[in-house]
Design goal:
The protein has seven helices and five strands. The protein has 194 residues and is an alpha/beta fold.
Length: 194
């Protein structure tokens, strides 16, 4: 099994420095993002994919469509990989989001949303579900946080948010079955160890 995780391409909210955890809010990728998505396609051109999973967020679907243009790879929406539901912080500035996080724990739910730990457990479930599908080659276009958590957990880090923290847009991160199988329970364990 080969799983390639990629964050969506540069989006309008990246420009505005605002958070979005509501998939019904239309947020598109920018012209820069379209170039990034096409470059991702070039980077993945020599990999045969059986499936592409995206989230319910349009920016992931737009990225996947451009990266896989003309390849006929089936695309499925997997809500378990959705970005964190930030509730009442929807559309607020990235700085306001970070300020809220500094004053709360991972266990605290965003007002009207979910907690970081709840999201982590959802991501662990997403990786387990993906592993249960059997040996395949899958591209997952999702968001920064599920990729960060998988990278850190697979590496055995003591923290889901480090040492890898910043995940660039439209950059492929490769996992085999063993590394994802290692990451899923570690994500879950770290989300319960607080």
């Amino acid at each position: 099994m080969l799983v390639v995780l990629a964050r969506h391409a540069h989006s309008e909210l990246n420009v505005e420095q605002r958070v979005n955890g509501d998939p019904s809010r239309p947020v598109h990728i920018t012209e820069e993002g379209k170039q990034e998505a096409r470059l991702l396609g070039v980077q993945l051109a020599n990999v045969s994919f059986d499936l592409c999973l995206c989230t319910r967020f349009g920016r992931t679907q737009e990225t996947a469509a451009l990266a896989l243009d003309g390849r006929g790879v089936p695309l499925e929406v997997e809500p378990l990989f959705d970005d964190i539901d930030v509730g009442e912080l929807e559309g607020e500035s990235l700085e306001d989001y970070r300020a809220w996080k500094r004053q709360h724990t991972r266990e605290d739910s965003f007002p009207g949303g979910e907690s970081l730990d709840d999201a982590a457990r959802r991501y662990a479930e997403a990786y387990r579900k993906l592993l249960a599908r059997g040996p395949r080659s899958v591209l997952v276009v999702c968001h920064e946080i599920p990729i960060r958590y998988a990278l850190n957990a697979a590496a055995g880090a003591a923290d889901l948010d480090g040492p890898v923290h910043e995940i660039p847009n439209a950059t492929p991160f490769l996992f085999d079955e063993r590394s994802l199988a290692r990451a899923a329970p570690r994500i879950e364990a770290l989300s319960r160890s607080r």
